[in-house]
Specification:
Layout (H helix, E strand, L loop, with lengths): L4 H8 L32 E3 L7 E3 L11 E6 L11 E10 L4 E5 L28 E4 L22 E7 H4 L14 E12 L20 E5 L2 E5 L11 E6 L11 E10 L5 E4 H4 L3 E4 L7 H7 L7 E6 L18 E10 L1
Antiparallel strand pairs: 1-2, 3-7, 4-5, 4-6, 4-8, 7-8, 9-10, 11-15, 12-13, 12-14, 12-16, 15-16
EC number: 5.2.1.8
Keywords: Isomerase, Rotamase, Signal
GO molecular function, one term: peptidyl-prolyl cis-trans isomerase activity
Length: 341
Amino acid sequence: MIPTKTAQRLAAVLAVPALLLVSACGSDDGGSDNSGGSGGEATTVVSGELGAKPEIELDADAEYPEEPRVTVITEGDGEEVSEGDYVRTDLVGVTASDDAEQINTWTDPTAPAPGAEEGEDAEETEDAPRAQYVARVGEDGMMPAAILDGVVGQSVGSRVLVEGQVGTIIGPQVVQMGMEEEDGIVLVIDIVGASTTDPAGEVEGEQAEPAEGMPEVTFGDEGPEIAVPEGEDPPAERQEQVLIEGDGPEITAGDGVVVQYSGVKWEDGELFDSSWQRGEGTAFQIGVGAVVQGWDEALTGKNVGDRVVVAIPPNEGYAAAEGHELQDSTLVFVVDLLGVV
């Protein structure tokens, strides 16, 4: 599935000097004084209550270690995060050379939250989920895998500070961004949720027959085959059907979701994307514009364990993505909802 503007903004962080390094000590307003960490003394001061945007004060004379230094600021009481788990996090990243905030899921004035009035900042919208970062630990994706290395072994509900060098955490390509590999970068990461979902799985159960006018879905060795109804015009509005009903948790806006999926174009049945063919699923946050509107609308309110087929007209797909190869296409997806983060 092709990410929309939220995911693209996060990816764009790598095009500028940015992203990750942390060291911390606690505060009197919610953090704990825990400057032990791995790899020596933390030098960055992090204050603010857990669950709110942290305030970060850098030490101008600090030296940042090649091996990232991890400090637990506040210890959570949830499950311990392991390599290969999916996590949902809040994070703030600051470059040490200029004390510039490069990524911040707590507030992004260019991305009003769902339901916000035009011109209203995301942080000013109540009762609407914020865009957070959902990824698999240890796997390169939208951002380098090393960005989340510091959460391994930590508990859900923890606030973690990681301090290190951009060359180690982002990679040697930072030289092309005008940075030295030894430059420092700081991240404060709040571990909001975690899941051990198998990304190569698929849901189980007896599959329903297609409803009238809906595509027919059959499964082979490489995942689903989707047959668009012959001679049928594409629907003007989104159409969806639950083919297998799961009994897992209900998916709500703001959740991280792990899925397998395949997508074809209604007009010719041509496959344009399939996680099954790549060998494993993907994860994203639902209800915050991280995916096309048709996914946000169709998958919110479904249950883990559901298999859903959804036909998405262009206005809920890529109609606004000027020049996109699928801009004018009605899209048909089969989605297995494997887990929630």
